[in-house]
Amino acid sequence: MLHLEHQVQKDIGVWRMQLTKIARRSLVELRVTAFDFGSETPRVVIRDPKLLATLPPPQSCKPIGMKDLIIDANFPRTLDQRVYHLGLRSGEVANRIITVGSPPRADAIAVHLDAQPKPFRLFSERGFLTITGRFKGVPVSICSIGMGYPNMDFFVREVRECLIGEMIVIRLGSCGGLRDFPVGSVVVPRASVAVTRNFDYDFYGGGSTKSEMPYRISKPAVADVELATILYRSLDSMLAPTRVIPGVVNASADSFYSSQGRKTLFPDHNSDLINHLLSSVDDLATLEMETFHLFHLAASWSGPPKPPIKPATNGTDGAATQSPVLDTLDLSEGDRPRIRAASAQMIFASRTSQEFIVPEEVERLESLSGRAVLQALVEVDIPGDRLHPDAGSVWT
Ligand code: R1P
């Protein structure tokens, strides 16, 4: 896969001109004509806002879906370069992002955005909502992604493809509390473990061999330390007298029910799960369903891939030539844009006292926490050359 962001940043004029010319004709043609480096699935990702402007107009009111023409089965996009599930394209999502689980929470936080420019809003056919605007003049996005690891996976991977430079993500979500923190408290975990159902366990037969446990606990994935510190300070100063607790550990489960120790009509073999978690994971304090996957993907991502150095033919006489783009893409580790992640977790339910937060408190907590997260995001320093260009974006 070839990422053009480096080509554009380094302004290799000849390639850019060639691209612009071809993009005006069609992306399908571009896919097979311009960048056939001999890989099995040659692919072009257009990130230059000016080049994007030459493509079909934005469809901000119309979500993409199965009826749109998709040009790449490996990483599906529409002809106008929208990613398949979030429906976004480059310039519609900012480097600083707050992600939440529900559209009403996203809308409640969006009231804090600057009135101008009018926030961009896109609701995808798959239920992802993105609102992009400015907070205190700084571009930010609010992304509502639904629930669970798979939706977090769609969000992180598809937004990453739409962004040049740093991706700073803070999840603001609800959680269950496993310690004696009051409901309505907010936790900023330093790490998260995954709790997953062991599908090899004999759930129907009522047990398995001793070597199989019904649930698995992963090693921890950690939050970005600096981001979590900024987040904690912002929440602590803006939420008083609400208690804000830093430095604990979260567990993200693959079910709201079985792998969080809840009883349903299914034989889940989970009656001792909460005790098992508390005795296995130091400082464990909260249970929810997304933070682990966010931290894990952020830690796994190492920047745009270095493409294979393969000779490219010049298309006229078949002679092998070295691509000027490939020559510029040898990024050292320190130059690679990062994904930095942290999480703020509002305790809606106490799994020890069985207490549940009241609706009026939810409204207050979501709005105040949302504003505190936006404040934290704008306090994160991102060097100018690691910011997505303003030109052609929805926040100009
Ligand atoms: C379950 O009710 C949902 O609430 C929590 C869990 O992680 C899960 O997504 O988070 P949100 O409030 O962000 O949706």
Summarize the structure.
By secondary structure, the chain is an alpha/beta fold. It is built from eleven helices and 17 strands. Strands 3, 4, 5, 6, 7, 8, 9, 10, 11, 12, 13, 14 and 17 form a 13-stranded mixed β-sheet that branches. A two-stranded parallel sheet has the order 1-2. It has a two-stranded antiparallel ribbon with strand order 15-16.
State the CATH superfamily name of the largest domain.
Nucleoside phosphorylase domain
Inertia-based shape: globular
CATH class of the largest domain: Alpha Beta
| Structural class designation | alpha/beta
Largest beta-sheet details:
13 strands, mixed
- What is the count of helical runs? 11
What percent strand? 15-25%
CATH topology of the largest domain: Rossmann fold
Averaged pLDDT: 82
Q: Give the total of beta strands.
A: 17
CATH architecture of the largest domain: 3-Layer(aba) Sandwich
Low-confidence segments, given as residue ranges, are: 1-44, 56-61, 308-330
Q: What distance lies between the first and last C-alpha atoms, to the nearest angstrom?
A: 30 Å
Radius of gyration: 23 Å
Protein model, in words:
There is one protein chain. Strand 15 and strand 16 form a beta hairpin. The N terminus is likely disordered. The protein has two domains: 60 residues, no CATH class; 322 residues, Rossmann fold, CATH 3.40.50.1580. With 396 residues, the protein is of the alpha/beta class. Strands 3, 4, 5, 6, 7, 8, 9, 10, 11, 12, 13, 14 and 17 form a 13-stranded mixed beta sheet that branches. 28% of the residues lie in helices and 21% in strands. It binds 1-O-phosphono-alpha-D-ribofuranose.
